[in-house]
Amino acid sequence: MFHMTLRKAENQMGRIVYLDNLRVFLTMLVVVFHSSIAYGGAGSWILKDVDDSQLSVTVIILSIFTGVCQAFFMSLFFFLSTYFIPASYDKKGPVSFLKGRLIRIGIPLLFYYFIIGPITNWFAHFSSRMTLSQFYIQKVFSFQQNFFGPAWFLETLLYASIVYALYQFFTKPNKKKTIDFPKGKTLVLIAFIFGFIAFSVRLIYPTGTGIWGLQFGYFPLYLLFMWAGVAAYRHKWLENMSEKLVKTWKIIGLIMIPIFPVGLIATGALSGNLNFSGGMNTQALFYALWEPFLCFGICIGLIVYFQKRWNFTSHFINLLRESAYTVYLIHPPVIVGWTMAFRPFGLPPFVKFVLVAPLSVATCFIIAFFILRIPHAKKIL
User: Fold this and answer.
1) What does the radius of gyration of the chain's CA atoms come to, in whole angstroms?
2) φ, ψ dihedrals at 11, nearest 5°
3) What is the pTM of this model?
């Protein structure tokens, strides 16, 4: 069994170090992920500098990368975010808990929706056609277009926090009851069940569609991992995963990576058939069933890897940790800025991606460092 020594896993502030380090890694991955979409990866993004309607090696490679990332990284983000909700609620009580969430999540969400999102979109697409004030009047204040962007994650966390607080307040569940970490066969069954649920949801809401910035096609796994984060804290799952189960699911997760392109090819991707986003077709069913198996395997593997290899901190790592939330909030304009800066150069899209991704990561953390030096910024970010 992986019996984690909590004294070793927590720093002086009571934070679990390896989970903080994992969050930093995922934040960096989000920046790289969105940079890859700008140069051909599958997905929606503010500004693209590539003709992704034409199948190319770059489009294929980056689409595989985005497909694999999309299958696990936001689910794991939700797990990490909800893992700490029970302790916060138990310490503060419902009123103070919700007040804190409104400050830490609600204010950044509003700032992104009305400031960062609109200005980034205006700069990328409308600055040559209308003034910023005209853009706000025609697009933002008219609510013709939503500007949640990546802040949909904050939006969802705010909803989850409210639901959790209401559930705890009205039901007062038995916190002494223990639920063991699911066994391997149970995880397989859950993966199939949630794969079929996702396939069913995507008949109505294919991936990339939804309301208020929420892509409902991905939400079955997101909801599962939000619940799992709370359960993992309450029932000490992270300290009690069997070595055999971890090893098995790490292998499953790694095997699922090459199965993704093979499955797409087998269902007609090379002939232009790319319908995995949803609908009553074999490719959409394959994608929906493949996704949870990769997600479970990669998430379990990453948690244990960081638990064993990255359970330490330093001054530099602490700077990255405290900046991660701000980086998530500000990364869209940074990526768009670098994309526009490299647009005049006649470089291949993949070369631009290799340059823009690390530059965006570094720039985001540098800007975040200075933002957090603004008085009272750390109370919100």
Assistant:
1) 21
2) -90, -170
3) 0.92
**Alpha-carbon separation of residue 141 from 111, 137, 147, 209, 350 (angstroms):** 14, 5, 11, 22, 37
Do 180 and 235 touch, CB atoms closer than 8 A?
yes
Residues 323 and 365 sit within 8 Å (Cβ to Cβ): yes
Distance CA 46, CA 55 (A): 21
Sign for the pseudo-dihedral over CA of 45, 22, 25, 151 = positive
Q: How many CB atoms lie within 10 A of CB 71?
A: 25
241: three-class secondary structure by DSSP: coil
Position 335, amino acid: I
For 65-89, how does the pLDDT look when each residue is reduced to its tens digit (9 = 90+)?
A: 999 999 999 999 999 999 999 999 9
Give kind and range of the element (H or E) at residue 215. Answer: strand 214-215
pLDDT tens string 243-256: 999 999 999 999 99
- Domain ranges (residues) in the chain: 18-380
